[in-house]
Recover the amino acids of this structure.
């Protein structure tokens, strides 16, 4: 995790009407394959609002440790709803001290015009990546899996 | 009656969180099972452990998957009514709430003002949004990966009318 360089302080995200939206970059993370992920103020604000609204404040501190999730995930898949290359979902099992138990946490990263940016963070049901059981496991594309992790631990 | 609050982030991430004013939030927070796909891949639902009822709904590609999401909610979650203060709507089912969210957040309130479908029928945002989806789908080539073809959108819209 590092501060953005002067040329990285702002990124442009295309909205659903094709308009350019400039977002301020809070920090930059090198994810598990060494690719840059921009963590923007908008992305962090959305994720925090969402966690508070859901009564999951215990995850807010994890927003400050996104680099641990993105750089050392258990498994990463392409979002099965989107076209390949559009959205990655990083899953990592984390210990939540407030609950005294582990939870599977998902960090969503969008890619637009070659720029990857953090989109959301949420709790995911243990043992099932997004799409299961609606999408057959064979149709879910794994982008990365940690050496000690088995696909079946995530329903694949 | 539970209140529904929507959160939105460009280009198509939407969450709806239901809260019950009679059930205060615990200090340690909600230890929920976490989101899982339900009925359609892009509709993810989490449950409130205190009531065992669904309380958080997320679609991360809502700008593309809204016909399926709205249809799934109409088909499977039509048995509870919600207040949506941010839309000034009261006692509406979940699919109507999501149809409002689509019209408001994605179309930026550009959807034509819904008219009553007949003298005895109340106006339906869901009907309007599905018709819009069908009209748009007619101009789309190809399909959304893992979802349905434009033909299916048309069928969904027509099915709603039957």
């Amino acid at each position: 995790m590092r501060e953005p360089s002067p040329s990285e302080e702002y990124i442009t995200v295309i909205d659903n009407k094709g308009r350019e939206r400039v977002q301020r970059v809070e920090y930059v993370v090198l994810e598990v394959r060494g690719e840059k992920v921009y963590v923007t103020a908008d992305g962090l604000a959305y994720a925090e609002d969402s966690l508070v609204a859901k009564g999951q404040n215990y995850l807010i501190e994890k927003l400050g440790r996104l680099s641990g999730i993105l750089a050392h995930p258990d498994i990463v898949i392409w979002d099965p709803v989107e076209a390949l290359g559009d959205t990655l979902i990083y899953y990592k099992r984390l210990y939540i001290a407030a609950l005294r138990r582990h939870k599977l946490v998902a960090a969503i990263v969008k890619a637009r015009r070659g720029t990857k940016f953090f989109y959301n963070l949420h709790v995911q049901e243990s043992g099932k990546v997004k799409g299961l059981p609606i999408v057959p496991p064979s149709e879910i594309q794994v982008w990365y899996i940690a050496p000690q992790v088995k696909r079946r631990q995530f329903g694949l | 009656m539970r209140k529904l609050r929507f959160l939105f982030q460009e280009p198509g991430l939407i969450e709806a969180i239901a809260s019950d004013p009679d059930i205060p939030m615990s200090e340690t927070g909600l230890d929920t099972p976490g989101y899982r796909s339900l009925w359609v891949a892009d509709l993810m639902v989490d449950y409130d452990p205190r009531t065992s009822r669904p309380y958080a709904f997320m679609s991360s590609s809502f700008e593309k998957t809204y016909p399926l999401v709205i249809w799934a909610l109409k088909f499977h979650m039509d048995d509870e009514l919600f207040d949506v203060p941010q839309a000034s709507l009261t006692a509406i089912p979940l699919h109507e709430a999501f149809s409002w969210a689509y019209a408001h957040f994605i179309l930026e309130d550009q959807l034509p003002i819904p008219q009553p479908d007949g003298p005895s029928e109340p106006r339906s945002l869901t009907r309007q949004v599905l018709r819009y989806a069908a009209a748009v789908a007619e101009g789309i080539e190809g399909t959304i990966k893992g979802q349905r073809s434009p033909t299916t959108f048309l069928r969904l819209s027509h099915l709603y009318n039957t």
User: Anything to note?
Assistant: Strands of chain B lie at 2-9, 13-19, 36-38, 40-48, 53-59, 81-84, 89-93. The mean pLDDT of chain B is 82.
